[in-house]
């Protein structure tokens, strides 16, 4: 709705699994896979609405909560990662750990951005 209301171009970036991902439960469970991606911290939900700046509000909103599911188990739920792990277990373990670390770092940075902007907003209103 925010994108439609914005008077100008909007950009939506979404996680959308496809048949090539090899969702083990089947492509019919892609909505569940999207939720798992967010729950595991593989994908983060956030919004940036520049119109809120004019209102003195924080334009950046982080909608994701901290990860509550296993990142590695999410990866294993997709054939593309499971095959990598089966063929190259040592390399996959290192890559999975690095991917989880990177995702955690991104989430932390998004939290910091949301908090920094909230603090600026609060100071401006005080």
Automatic annotation (TrEMBL):
UniProt cross-references to InterPro entries, sorted A to Z: Pyruvate:ferred/Flavod_OxRd (IPR050722), THDP-binding (IPR029061)
Gene3D superfamilies: 3.40.50.970
Residues spanning the signal sequence: none
Domain of life of the source: Bacteria
Protein name according to UniProt: Pyruvate synthase
């Amino acid at each position: 709705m925010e994108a439609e209301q914005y008077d100008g171009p909007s950009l939506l970036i979404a996680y959308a699994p496809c048949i090539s991902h090899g969702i083990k439960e089947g492509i019919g469970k892609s909505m569940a896979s999207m939720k798992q991606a967010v729950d595991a911290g593989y994908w983060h939900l956030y919004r940036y609405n520049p119109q809120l700046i004019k209102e003195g509000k924080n334009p950046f909103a982080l909608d994701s909560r901290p990860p509550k599911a296993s990142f590695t188990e999410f990866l294993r739920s997709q054939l593309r990662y499971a095959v990598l792990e089966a063929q190259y277990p040592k390399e996959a373990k290192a890559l999975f750990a690095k991917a989880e670390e990177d995702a955690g770092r991104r989430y932390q940075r998004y939290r910091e951005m949301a908090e920094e902007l909230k603090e600026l907003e609060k100071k401006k209103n005080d």
